[in-house]
Structure formats: structure tokens, C-alpha cells
């Protein structure tokens, strides 16, 4: 599996599926999920109103893009309550999401960085590479991780150059503070 680190807007990704996550107790919607909600005429907001459990941790909602995005669908993953979210749940969310995308037969996928802290860190990027390595036998061949912070993106690209991820765990970032 090739893993790329990207900046910019995940909704412009040209591939098969985009994975987005949102917390169940964060209203109004924010970030890329809010942009998608606007693009799809408040469909996510209506889902939230009619089925409030759809953003509970582990819940997945498949949203067809109907040609409005350059992918066939978006998987919106429930992250549960923001205050309950931790690194273990973060790992499980990405594992579950990548498996779901592979289950759709997707080969080119994108995920938006799920930040657990006010300032993202390189550890989350390193762990994403580790999860990609664990799941390298799935159908996914190309994965993009979108990182919001320009500073983190720059540091991550320096520490983790574009590379193929296999079953072996990734090395630690060069020069990154641990």
C-alpha cells in the first residue's frame, strides 16, 4: 500500500472513497464534515436530527456523492463523545474505517486526520503508517492522509517521506521529538 501525506481539502481527493470522522457531541458540525453537509444540502444535519446515534463510536454511515465529489462515496465514522476519545479509540477508528473502505472494494482511499489534541503531533502520523502496515493485505493500494496543520504536514513529510507500507512496522520519525 502506498501512503501519501497531503494538505488541502479532502473533499477534492480523486479516488474511490473518503473516510471522515466526527464526534457525537460536537454541534454545530465542523471542519470537512460541515463542508460536506453544506454541499449535500444539510443531509448530515438531518441524519443527526433523525438518528442521533449515527455518530456514536464505531457507527459508520455510507454517503453516496451523486457526482458532487470526485469519489463514489464518503464513509462518515462516528467517533463518540469528544471527551471520551483517546489514542486507543483513535487507532480502532482508523482500523475500522480502512477495513470498511476495503470492504467496498476501494483501491484509492483518503482519510482526514483525526486530531485528539489542540495541536496535532507526529505520533498520530507514525501510528497511521503502522495501521496501514497492519492492513496492507487488504484491497487498498493507495491511501492519502490529509493533515490540516501546515506545520505538522511539513514536519511529517520530512520525517515520513512517501513510501510503500508493507507488513513491517514503520520506523520512528527522524529528528522528531518524542
How would you describe what is shown here?
By secondary structure, the protein is of the alpha/beta class. It contains five helices and seven strands; from the N terminus they run ββααββαβαβαβ. The chain has a seven-stranded mixed sheet with strand order 3-4-2-5-6-1-7. It is globular and about 40 Å long. 32% of the residues are buried.
Total helices: the number is 5
> How would you state the average pLDDT, rounded?
83
Structural class by sheet pairing and helices: alpha/beta
Oligomer: single chain
| Biggest sheet descriptor | 7 strands, mixed
Short description:
By secondary structure, the protein is α/β, with parallel strands linked by helices. Helices cover about 30% and strands about 20% of the residues. It has a single domain (about 1-165), classed as Leucine Aminopeptidase, subunit E, domain 1, CATH 3.40.220.
Could you name the key traits of this structure?
178 residues, alpha/beta, Leucine Aminopeptidase, subunit E, domain 1, 7 strands, 19% strand, globular, disordered C terminus
